[in-house]
Amino acid sequence: MNVPANLKYTKDHEWLKVDGDFAYIGITDHAQHELGDIVFIEVETVGETLAKHESFGTIEAVKTVSDMFMPVTGEVLEFNEVLTTNPEIINQDPYEKGWVIKIALSDAAEIGELLDAAQYSALISG
Predict the structure, then answer these.
(1) Is residue 44 part of a domain?
(2) CA dist., res. 122 & res. 92, Å (int)
(3) How does DSSP assign the chain, residue by residue?
């Protein structure tokens, strides 16, 4: 499994990439592998400020629908519109082209509570 060292991770298999006062959020390579072929992404929270652990949207694969959760508190600024017509990009490139939302960080201190690549790798290797 691909676990980039420059990202932060949650036990719910979301990743967070900090970019100044903003951050990008998506699901991990492990999560997309477990879900299988992704067929639909729904995010109806653009413009809302959500607390850490709140659901920001759903991801639908052939066999299941799962909630996606905020790794940190922030305002959802943008949904990756490419996923509307090409949700399978998450299967192909979960960390770059397959980002799901961009947020404005509310509390940067929360980032320190997330897992680093080594901790996340240990979690998924069981």
Answers:
(1) yes
(2) 23
(3) ----TTSEE-TTSEEEEEETTEEEEEE-HHHHHHH-SEEEEE---TT-EE-TT-EEEEEEESS-EEEEE-SS-EEEEEE-THHHH-TTHHHH-TTTTT--EEEEES-GGGGGGSB-HHHHHHHHH-
Number of domains comprising the chain: 1
Residue 1 lies in a domain: no
Render pLDDT for 27-62 as a digit per residue (tens, 0 to 9): 999 999 999 999 999 999 999 999 999 999 999 999
* CATH number, residue 66: 2.40.50.100
HSE-up (13 A, CA, CB side) for residue 101:
29
